[in-house]
């Protein structure tokens, strides 16, 4: 199954329609507003802007499973991201990425191993999954991997639609 078939709501309500990303590269990131890694929003926005015209988007997926670091409502999350970091990339509803309530999107993503061989449960906020235009997971990156990391940007460039 590809992520394009997964149903998820957008942060502002209504379906996020992951099928709209068919033929595009997507960096799926579980995000949080009150985390030490939250400043990565700025770098994620830069990535989104840098590659958007080449068929790429960042997709933010709020999650409150890591020490309650995303406690806000959808409206509060949207306002924070926009006002603080100028985020323009799409965001989904708040979901669970681990455990019995794991969202179907993360059921598709979690089995992919990162460069160190970690697969399975999401370790922390800002874990990143690069999905190719065909909807298959191309790479996984640890939460501490900064958006401007050379390995991450090379992986993005490697899956951009031609």
UniProtKB/TrEMBL annotation:
The keyword Repeat does not apply. The keyword Oxidoreductase applies. GO terms for molecular function: peroxidase activity. SUPFAM superfamilies: Thioredoxin-like. Gene3D superfamilies: Glutaredoxin. CDD domains: GSH_Peroxidase. Belongs to the glutathione peroxidase family. This is Glutathione peroxidase. It comes from Streptomyces albiaxialis.
């Amino acid at each position: 199954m590809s992520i394009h078939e997964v149903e998820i709501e957008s942060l502002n309500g209504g379906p996020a329609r992951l099928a709209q990303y068919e033929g595009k590269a997507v960096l799926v990131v579980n995000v949080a507003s009150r985390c030490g890694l939250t400043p990565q929003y700025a770098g994620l926005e830069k990535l989104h802007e840098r590659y958007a015209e080449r068929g790429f988007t960042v997709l933010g997926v709020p999650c409150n499973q890591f020490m309650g670091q995303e406690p806000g409502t959808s409206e509060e999350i949207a306002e924070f991201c926009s006002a603080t970091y100028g985020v323009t990339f799409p965001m989904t509803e708040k979901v669970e990425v681990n455990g019995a309530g794991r969202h179907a999107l993360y059921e598709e993503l979690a089995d992919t191993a990162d460069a160190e061989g970690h697969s399975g449960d999401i370790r922390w906020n800002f874990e990143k999954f690069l999905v190719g235009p065909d909807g298959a997971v191309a790479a996984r990156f640890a939460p501490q991997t900064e958006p401007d990391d050379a390995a991450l940007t090379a992986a993005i460039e490697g899956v951009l639609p031609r």
